[in-house]
TrEMBL record:
Organism: Candidula unifasciata
Cofactor(s), names only, from the UniProt record: L-ascorbate
GO terms, molecular function: iron ion binding; L-ascorbic acid binding; procollagen-proline 4-dioxygenase activity
Name of this chain's protein: Prolyl 4-hydroxylase alpha subunit domain-containing protein
Ranges occupied by TPR repeats: 242-275
SMART domains, alphabetized: P4Hc
Length: 544
């Protein structure tokens, strides 16, 4: 028994050391809002809840026997606000648990999760370190666990990424701010709407990021909301309507709408004649208008300030993502026979060739591959029950490492289909790289940032001879809104359809990007291929 106890003691010390050591747990690239990373933050809150359930007892925060009352009051915390955070988290996890995937796919739910972790739990876990077990009982395992959770809570930067994502959805897809505030996006309802305080926090993030046009739309929403509040409700807020109007005038000036800035400032003084900020701004804006003679004015009014005006300022990639989706008619599809099988081939572009093959793999195959990739990434990510490390970008479909016959059979089936499709291109490739399954997170993805990991580098030219390099992209699930493959140079947008396959040569055109997603993330299998040396008579010989 003594030997067993000694072994257990050593194991606990090792786990404690692992938890207290700095382990890299941050995903900072465009996989930040991927499934596994969002689940990571959800689990952090679950683990924080379990620790709070154990340590949050009144007698654990009572005075020590040898301690004077006045000394005790110095470190006795007020647990009321922390208890409200705990109760909210419990209610959320009770409702979200059975539907975790859809819960984490909703941007408002994600915002609330990150806000609780960054504000409520950060302060709350620090309070738990003041409990008697942590201060007096010499329990390194518990203390190490709590410190690990604190170190891995999302901060201002991560919360800002979520606000960026919400702003992108708003501007790209033309989602009204009122719908976002109500928590209804893409026809799906969040667990709770955004409070006016949370809306103001979003405005501050947008203001700090100099996204003034988007901030203005939110400020107008807040101002309209506050106009309908009672005096008692307004007094309970940490900001006033005049604060909102002052921010609006600042934002108007930042986007060179000086007359609107002046008009908004006059509204502030009508509500509060003694407002010092507005009084200074009034003089400044009047002088600015007189000097510049409204050269920078565009005459934009409130009715015109909507997501359409913001969208004009977006990069081309985001404008293409926001292009109105049209129902696929497949009028350009060809039925091409290979053996006994007919394939639906739709050329999207000829020079360079970009092709979509419709309905290639079965739904079962797609589901099995997606499930395998998600489970594998989860296993890679969780070093222990509480320790997270970023997984690899792609999950390699290696038959030697698969343990189930179902997974092996579906992978073999996929490879056979891709081999058949290759005969429609330039014949069998010289080399097939490993197939990898990737998760395109809610923010979307730029493949150029991951070309090395996905083996999508263009081949080197050798004199007048060259190799061609391309890839097949197999869509493993449907998405509600977004997820399109965007080719900026060719002005082409390809909506993902489960079971279809996209092919093009990245040696002839730039790697595409995936649009931000609403409803669920996108899973894609990537099969890079390389073709033999070629000596074309004409550089743009076609095979379509």
């Amino acid at each position: 028994m003594a030997g067993v106890a000694a072994v257990q003691s050593v194991v606990l010390l090792l786990i404690s050391a692992m938890l207290t050591n700095k382990v890299s747990t941050k995903i900072i690239d465009d996989r930040f809002l991927s499934d596994v990373n969002l689940e990571h933050y959800y689990v952090i809150e679950e683990n924080a809840l379990s620790n709070a359930n154990v340590l949050l007892r009144d007698d654990y925060f009572g005075a020590d026997e040898e301690e004077l009352e006045e000394d005790h009051e110095k470190h006795t915390p007020n647990l009321t606000s922390f208890i409200s955070v705990i109760n909210e988290a419990k209610a959320v996890h009770r409702l979200a648990g059975p539907h975790l995937e859809s819960f984490l796919a909703h941007p408002v739910n994600v915002y609330h999760l990150f806000r609780r972790l960054d504000s409520g739990w950060r302060e709350g876990l620090q309070l738990l370190l003041q409990s008697k077990p942590c201060r007096k009982w010499n329990l390194p395992m518990i203390v190490g666990r709590i410190r690990y959770l604190i170190d891995n809570l999302p901060g201002r930067e991560e919360s800002g990424r979520v606000v960026d994502y919400i702003a992108k959805l708003q501007n790209i897809y033309g989602i009204p701010v009122k719908d976002i505030v109500r928590g209804r996006i893409g026809g799906v309802q969040a667990l709770k709407p955004l409070t006016v305080e949370e809306q103001f926090e979003i405005v501050k993030v947008l203001h700090d990021k100099d996204d003034m046009r988007t901030a203005l739309v939110w400020l107008q929403q807040i101002y309209e909301h506050m106009s309908g509040l009672t005096l008692e409700q307004k007094s309970s807020l940490d900001f006033k309507q005049t604060d909102i109007l002052n921010l609006m005038s600042s934002a108007y000036y930042a986007i060179k709408h000086v007359s609107k800035a002046l008009e908004t400032t006059e509204q502030v003084l009508a509500l509060d004649p003694n407002n010092g900020i507005a009084a200074s701004n009034l003089i400044f804006f009047k002088n600015k208008l007189a000097i510049e003679k409204e050269k920078n004015e565009t005459g934009l009014n409130n009715a015109e300030l909507n997501t359409v005006s913001v969208r004009k300022q977006l990069p081309k990639y985001e404008r293409l993502c926001g292009r109105k989706r049209q129902k696929a008619t497949r009028k350009r599809c060809r039925l091409v026979r290979i053996g006994l099988i007919f394939y639906k081939v739709e050329p999207l572009h000829y020079k360079p060739p970009i092709v979509i093959f419709h309905d290639i793999i079965r739904s079962k195959t797609a589901d099995v591959l997606k499930s395998y990739a998600h489970d594998t990434q989860t296993e890679q990510a969780w070093i222990s029950e509480e320790t997270f490390s970023p997984p690899e970008l792609g999950v390699v479909l290696n038959l030697q490492e698969m343990t189930t016959s179902s997974m092996k059979n579906e992978t073999i089936s996929l490879k056979k289909h891709l081999l058949s499709l290759s005969s429609l291109a330039e014949g069998e490739p010289e080399a097939w790289d490993q197939i990898q399954v990737i998760n395109v997170g809610l923010e979307g993805m730029h493949l150029r940032e991951h070309r090395r990991n996905l083996r999508l580098n263009p081949p080197e030219k050798q004199g007048k001879y060259r190799k061609e390099a391309g890839a097949y992209y197999i869509f493993l699930n449907d998405v509600k809104i977004g997820g399109e493959a965007v080719f900026v140079d060719e002005n082409i947008v390809v909506h993902p359809e489960k079971g279809s396959v996209l092919f093009y040569y990245h040696s002839k055109t730039s790697l595409h990007s995936f649009c931000p997603v609403i409803g669920s993330s996108l899973w894609v299998a990537v099969q890079p291929v390389r073709y033999k040396l070629r000596n074309y008579c004409v550089d743009d010989d076609e095979w379509l």
